[in-house]
Specification:
By secondary structure, the protein is mostly helical. It has helices spanning about 10-25, 35-40, 45-50, 55-80, 85-100, 110-115, 120-145, 150-170, 175-190. The longest helix has 24 residues, at about 55-80. The protein starts with 10 loop residues before the first helix and ends with a helix.
Length: about 200
């Protein structure tokens, strides 16, 4: 990563990443060429390649940016001091709000996995790394409710999320968000033994 003398990330790199993030999410990874990103970021190709050795490296940086946004949102729920069931509901509410947001086009990671299915590719590895982090985080929260059933409950939560992310860009996002929240609530009610 190119930094200036004060150790800050360069403005050109930030512009490139912001532009790529916007376009990759809205239009896809393979369909967007380097020339378009360079033009919209108002940099030269040499500047792009000084910051990112290849388009694949730029795609990975985009996914890492989205992953950090997800982590920040989850950390906010975890840092709130709520009990585990309420923290899980807060995470779910953040997901539902994202589904209902303007410009929602599904999960950036599921979209990337569909375009880069090769398990040896760095883009798919970035997807799998993020999914592993998310599953472990959700598993840890469910373990605070019931350690024995935590792995299965977390997988169920992630599967509900994946389905909601896919459905949210195909049908009524508000109904999908409400259905997802109801599913998470049912899962938590069942796991806490209050059903």
């Amino acid at each position: 990563m190119v930094q200036n003398v004060r150790g800050q990330v360069s403005e050109a790199r930030s512009r490139l990443l912001a532009t790529a993030t916007r376009i990759f999410y809205s239009e896809g990874l393979h369909s967007v060429g380097i020339d378009r990103i360079v033009a919209e970021a108002k940099v030269t190709r040499a500047t792009l390649y000084r910051h990112f050795a290849s388009k694949d490296e730029l795609v990975v940086a985009y996914l890492q940016t989205v992953a950090q946004m997800d982590r920040d949102q989850v950390e906010q729920a975890l840092g709130s001091g709520l009990p585990a069931d309420q923290a899980l509901r807060a995470v779910a509410q953040g997901i539902a709000a994202g589904i209902e947001s303007t410009g929602f086009r599904g999960c950036a990671f599921l979209n990337a996995a569909a375009e880069f299915p090769d398990r040896s590719h760095p883009v798919l590895n970035a997807v799998l790394d993020h999914r592993a982090w998310f599953l472990q985080t959700i598993t840890d929260l469910f373990a605070q409710i019931d350690e024995k059933s935590a792995p299965a409950a977390a997988r169920h939560f992630v599967m509900l999320r994946d389905g909601a992310m896919a459905a949210g860009c195909l049908t009524d996002p508000e109904a999908v968000g409400a259905t997802f929240l109801a599913g998470v609530n049912g899962l938590l009610t069942y796991r806490s033994g209050t059903a």
